[in-house]
Amino acid sequence: MWGILRRSAVDGGGFSASSLRRTRFALVSARSYAAGSKEMTVRDALNSAIDEEMSADPKVFVMGEEVGQYQGAYKITKGLLEKYGPERVYDTPITEAGFTGIGVGAAYAGLKPVVEFMTFNFSMQAIDHIINSAAKSNYMSAGQINVPIVFRGPNGAAAGVGAQHSQCYAAWYASVPGLKVLAPYSAEDARGLLKAAIRDPDPVVFLENELLYGESFPISEEALDSSFCLPIGKARIEREGKDVTITTFSKMVGFVLKAAEKLAEEGISAEVINLRSIRPLDRATINASVRKTSRLVTVEEGFPQHGVCAEICASVVEESFSYLDAPVERIAGADVPMPYAANLERLALPQVEDIVRAAKRACYRSK
Amino acid sequence: MALSRLSSRSKGISRPLSAAFSRSISTDTTPITIETSLPFTAHLCDPPSRSVESSTQELLSFFRTMALMRRMEIAADSLYKAKLIRGFCHLYDGQEAVAIGMEAAITKKDAIITAYRDHCIFLGRGGSLYEVFAELMGRQDGCSKGKGGSMHFYKKDSSFYGGHGIVGAQVPLGCGIAFAQKYSKEEAVTFAMYGDGAANQGQLFEALNISALWDLPSILVCENNHYGMGTAEWRAAKSPSYYKRGDYVPGLKVDGMDAFAVKQACKFAKEHALKNGPIILEMDTYRYHGHSMSDPGSTYRTRDEISGVRQERDPIERIKKLVLSHDLATEKELKDMEKEIRKEVDDAIAKAKDCPMPEPSELFTNVYVKGFGTECVLCSVQGPLCEF
């Protein structure tokens, strides 16, 4: 649909790029729902972010499996091939090690690749290039070779895709100095963080979530502007509270917000922090919140051992120990490969009940 | 081998010439044609001619630079044994003709990327002896400010992209650089160098496939020194015809101990890659040292083999014979040149030994281009050093 709009604008003449974009979004949102506020799906947010950055900088190009002709395995890159042509959007063979290495090499030479992994599970085939070729190069070369690349794609569990397609890689990548690791939740997060990632001169691992792609979120005028950008390294307080701090990222933010509603019914006021940035972690915001509430619950989808939650707990214990009124709580995915059966899969992932129970425990309301 | 004797080169005329270059290389660019010692073997292409265009200046500079490279590597050996160089140290002596022949065929806009045996490539790209020794000894004036080490030399202003420790990784990276060159319409090529050990890596074939599909100006250069660490090529590769391993990608097998053959092949490859996409060059070469300074290099090959190659195929000896037969210098003049080189190397080492180690605050620099100001990560033990 966007391709068609674009063509008619070119034929008709007289449209500026940004006014066309606003028109497009207005059309989309007018169809979606009630008049007044604008909404946007995460998918559209990501697509528009890539589109705008490609338009602004000719060095930005997209590479990955099915990103071009297929319009993207999850339609994130829809319309980009038609708009920018095969010199900016590259369909690769199914060879992650090869094309990731090529992407990193292109970044060495000054281009700005946006490399898509169909899921981050497949990034393991290319992880040497992400870590040894990309993350460490600026340091090893003492600043001669920087790597302005973005590795993006869906991360974590989807629905029923089994053990090899469900792992969360946030903890793995966030442990590496030289990488920046981002995890958006809302459409605004998606737009602002992806634009920041593409503009960033360092390698960024951008962890999306398949189940969030179709979700709609309200989006501000500011966020729709093509110059919109969110800072890397700052968390967002999604909901203010005074009794317990609950931190999380990606899809779990939605679950934690639901849990906060339930907790509010029982008189517990939860402060919900959407991390947005896993590396660097916004320790300042997390600790300031814990110093206010005195209690911490950390939530993630990934495996518990050596996880993002473990890092947050350690940081809070190190920096805000005397403020804690209860032991820190970790809610993570079960320590098992993801099972297929629907009931087991549900048991393997944090649910709203688990988060509520942990928050109550931190507030001495339950065992 | 055809030796073209230039009639103007009598001993009388060469004397002032030699006086000139006992201080510096002659600037005389009289053309010479050199025949390569062996023919090229080709796969899916027509091999280039064995007659290589050169000049007196080039011939002399080949000798000088290769002798410099040789001396530098031997000095590194001593420094390693004196424990001034730590960790890994992979020496290139024996393979100098590849580095020098390649440089003679290309410009600094053409890119080179290689593995960890990178000291001489760095020198060939314009790096200085001082930067080499300072980096090897972990000092702040090293080419990577002491933070890279032997395996991580870079010189971006000469399109030298390192210096890579993971076997085979540099090949897709090199194809990526070639991608960028094509994307930016630079009319330049990338030489991605790797060894016979790396030649079996899957990512090579992935990168070659994409290079061929997208017509990237990538030139894959296999420096076949016949041993992947301690494993001889016949124990590692079902097909050790590395120039053919590209299947649908053309290849050329080159005598890697002959700097002129290397030059001709690289010139041919550059023309090919700019028009037709990737090509593989297999350089038949040899390393005198073991895989690294931790490897004596004699448990998997005989001393006779090593000394045999040194006697029959040494690349510097070959150039020396050419210089002498073309009357460009006398034995004594070449010996004087070698003495000068030795001194140059010794001076660079002395200066590097005096260079201080990096400041402690450098621990936290260059992690990112765009760091986070005063937000320190895990610096409770590091105190105020950790701003980056």
TrEMBL record, chain A:
Its cofactor is thiamine diphosphate. It comes from the Eukaryota. Residues 40-215 form the Transketolase-like pyrimidine-binding domain. Keywords: Oxidoreductase, Pyruvate, Thiamine pyrophosphate. It catalyses: N(6)-[(R)-lipoyl]-L-lysyl-[protein] + pyruvate + H(+) = N(6)-[(R)-S(8)-acetyldihydrolipoyl]-L-lysyl-[protein] + CO2. Its EC number is 1.2.4.1. It holds the Pfam family Transketolase_C. InterPro entries: PDHB_mito-type, THDP-binding, Transketo_C/PFOR_II, Transketolase-like_Pyr-bd, Transketolase_C. The keyword Transferase does not apply. The keyword Oxidoreductase applies. The pyruvate dehydrogenase complex catalyzes the overall conversion of pyruvate to acetyl-CoA and CO2. This is Pyruvate dehydrogenase E1 component subunit beta. The lineage of its organism: Eukaryota, Viridiplantae, Streptophyta, Embryophyta, Tracheophyta.
UniProtKB/TrEMBL annotation, chain B:
Its cofactor is thiamine diphosphate. Keywords: Oxidoreductase, Pyruvate, Thiamine pyrophosphate. It holds the Pfam family E1_dh. Residues 301-311 have a biased composition (Basic and acidic residues). The keyword Magnesium does not apply. The keyword Oxidoreductase applies. Its EC number is 1.2.4.1. It catalyses: N(6)-[(R)-lipoyl]-L-lysyl-[protein] + pyruvate + H(+) = N(6)-[(R)-S(8)-acetyldihydrolipoyl]-L-lysyl-[protein] + CO2. NCBIfam families: PDH_E1_alph_y. This is Pyruvate dehydrogenase E1 component subunit alpha. It comes from Brassica cretica (Mustard).
